[in-house]
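Lest this sound abstract, we let one protein speak, letters for residues, whole numbers for local backbone shapes, and leave readers to judge:
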Amino acid sequence: MQGLVFDGDRRVSLRDFPDPKPGEGEIVIRVTASGMCGSDLHYYRASAESTPDSTTACVGGHEPAGIVQELGPGSGTGLAVGDRVMIHHYAGCGHCVPCRSGWTQMCTTGAPLVYGKNAHGAHAPYMQVSARSALPLSDSLSFEAGAAIGCGTGTAWGALERLGDIGGTDVVVFGQGPVGISATMLAAARGARVIAVDLEPERLAQSSRFGAADTVDAGSVDAVAAIRELTGGSGASAAVETSGATAAAASAVEALAPWGRLCVVGLGGTVELDVRRYLSRQLTVMTSWSMSSVQQLECADFIDRHSLPVDDLFSDRWSLDQAEEAYIKFDKQDAGKGVFVF
């Protein structure tokens, strides 16, 4: 089969790989949807010198959904050939406390597998995964929705879970890319009044369609002043930072009300706190690393029960032979989410 590899310097290629065969405790899925995630751009934009050579390169992509194609020995009785599944894109030992609680990415017995990073990912027709990583996907959710929930949308859910009860509060979401727009949609559905912040007017317009009550164009106004005005001068009870920009993180801290909570999920930025400046405001700043497999199932169930328009996150659907064009478009970060469909 052919799979997509990130070559660095904003280049991708399709390379030949053996068709996967499931080992002990593994399955093979036929990939039907493989989402493009903003974190993939870190590999896409990396220098060619820092990327693996042809003998160690992995198939990229970590937002898979598909159909169980083959079961390996010891894969358990919970799955059957033909089942629809989404993937929690990590695999650990399966025995330590984090693994047993669904936090496979925090496995304590060794470096976990991260599909699309140090194990073959989903930008290919077939994918070999740990059977524990395969989660049931409801017939009422599309494969594209399952792919989004597997990382981008699930990451937004994980951040909101870290913040706790947000019903009836003002929540600011910095960045309205795929993760941010998912946070806007989910926070609104959970009863928050959402203020969406971005530099792109097109993304702000989209955020209104996903439930944002107000929008702030950080490229044309002082975002902190605008948020304080929208909250009657008090600031926001909670914020999620998804852009990975240091300036956005600084604004998020400054825009919080006393006792406010900030959850940071965007990669690449720096969060700095002047203790003297913020001590008396009793702020809480936290990070969130995607979500557990348990939370992934809860997120999918919530989306299903509330009929949330996850499919509308996707602005572009591609075939694998359009990989170069797909990533050139996605790299511009001015549209919605992209997905390879098989």
